[in-house]
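Q: I'm building a small set of examples for a reading group on sequence design. Run inverse folding on the following structure and report the sequence directly after it, with nothing in between.
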């Protein structure tokens, strides 16, 4: 099953909770407290999302680069099911985060944002025993996943054995059609929903577009 994950990166708890309410009413079951949101209002927002949506999957984007054990611990204590850490961190940080995540019954998503050699770093992360990896384009990055180089890297990452791939960066209902041949377990959408003139319609368009796709051969979204 492939998931749509809504990355909520706003600046107030009120905005975040309004976004989460609209998303869950529209069929989204994975709510991410984005790193800007966590920095702006604190990890209490993760606890509040956990309380309001007990059946949802709650993700804390910690952008962890150091203190892997402690950052996973505080996110788990707040109620997160998944914690986002950075592939650019050292192997020691990733292993410490992984050990703590296993002891807490949570999981990690490892973001390739900022990594130059994405394919080989993804291989190395898999060798550490971490298989949930985000091909992650940041909002400030100057490339698109449809550019030839990144597109080729994305295909190579998606083909790595045992990977559970998530795709993030510039994804919306329209751009989803640009990736007909890339398998992904998770599709992370942030501003594609938040900045839409009609967020509810955008969510529905994403869900509708994805229903016709098979996870074994293409990116899809399930409710």
């Amino acid at each position: 099953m492939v998931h749509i994950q809504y990355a909520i990166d706003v600046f107030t708890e009120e905005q975040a909770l309004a976004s989460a309410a609209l998303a869950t009413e529209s069929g989204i079951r994975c709510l991410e407290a984005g790193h800007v949101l966590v920095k702006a209002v604190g990890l209490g927002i993760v606890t509040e999302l956990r309380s309001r949506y007990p059946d949802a999957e709650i993700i804390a984007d910690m952008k962890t680069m150091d203190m892997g054990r402690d950052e996973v611990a505080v996110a788990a204590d707040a109620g997160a099911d998944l914690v986002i850490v950075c592939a650019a961190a050292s192997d020691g940080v990733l292993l410490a985060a992984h050990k703590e995540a296993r002891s807490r019954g949570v999981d990690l998503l490892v973001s390739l944002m900022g990594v130059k050699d994405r394919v080989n770093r993804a291989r190395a992360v898999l060798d550490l025993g971490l298989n949930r990896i985000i091909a992650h384009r940041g909002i400030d990055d100057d490339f698109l996943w449809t550019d030839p180089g990144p597109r080729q890297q994305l295909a190579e990452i998606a083909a790595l054995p045992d990977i559970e791939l998530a795709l993030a960066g510039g994804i919306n209902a329209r751009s989803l059609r640009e990736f007909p041949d890339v398998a992904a377990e998770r599709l992370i959408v942030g501003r594609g929903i938040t900045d839409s003139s009609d967020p509810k319609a955008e969510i529905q368009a994403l869900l509708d577009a994805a229903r016709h796709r098979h996870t074994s051969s293409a990116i899809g979204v399930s409710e």
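The two ends are 9 Å apart (CA to CA).
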